[in-house]
Amino acid sequence: MLLDNISTIYKRISHAAMRAGRDPSEVELIAVTKTVPAERIKEAIDLGIRLIGENRVQEAKEKIELLRSKIPETVQWHMIGHLQKNKVRPAVMLFDMIQSVDSLELANRINRIAAEFGKVQRVLVQVKLAEEETKYGIKERELEPLLSEMMNMENLLIEGLMTIPPYLEEPEKVRPYFRRLRELKERMKERGFNLKHLSMGMSGDYEVAVEEGATMVRVGTAIFGRRIYR
Ligand SMILES: *Cc1c(COP(=O)(O)O)cnc(C)c1O
Q: Is the CB of 220 within 6 Å of ligand 1?
């Protein structure tokens, strides 16, 4: 089951990349494991998954502690959910990458705590492309000023942009948002900010995201099945 799901996703990523004239190896699959128990995450890792995405610091901490001695050191944990200010310290301790930087204040705090640990924290800036009350992320026009400030933070490595578009049944309807994030990355390049990653696309729309330039897709349900929230 898990193996079939993962193989299918890799195949679809490859095809989508090739349709867009891209090299499939530019695209990384992040297995999103919120609500998924540690044993099942371990199975996915045994099948070759190396990037894990979690939304909540406490949940991730419990699983990482359970799994640490049982999985290869090459496994990376990515924070993909909103990071509360009071959770920055454990987040910097636990995560290889924080994909959800959505304010100057948060960036500052991550930088300061990373400095305490002697760590350079890899981060993405989360951009909100639609007016939605419910989602986090900075507005497009706030991106350049924020990047300018973040460039001076010595313990941050800014690797790119992340977005969670509005939920729409039809993947094609999400395409304009993915395209806009790619254009934003290109615009930032012209201004001197070289951003490597675009983290975009989930179970329902990752192929469209890859066609539009995603370098990281975050897939949960299509790997592990429907989430059961407790
Ligand atoms: C849950 C989640 C995903 C994965 O969603 P699926 O539809 O299950 O693939 C991706 N990104 C973020 C930020 C999430 O919270």
A: yes
- Residue 22: name the closest of 13, 9, 32 by CA: 13
The identity of residue 119, as a single letter, is K
| pLDDT tens readout for residues 6-26 | 999 999 999 999 999 999 999
Mutate to test the pocket of ligand 1, among 5, 59, 80 (most ligand atoms within 8 A of CB): 80
Q: How far apart are CA 166 and CA 204, in angstroms?
A: 12
Two structure tokens written together for 202: 């989930």
Which ranges constitute the DSSP H helices of 27-134?
Answer: 38-46, 57-67, 88-94, 104-117
3 state DSSP class of 101: strand
Q: Is residue 24 a contact partner of residue 13, using CB atoms and an 8 Å limit?
A: yes
Q: What is the pTM of this model?
A: 0.97
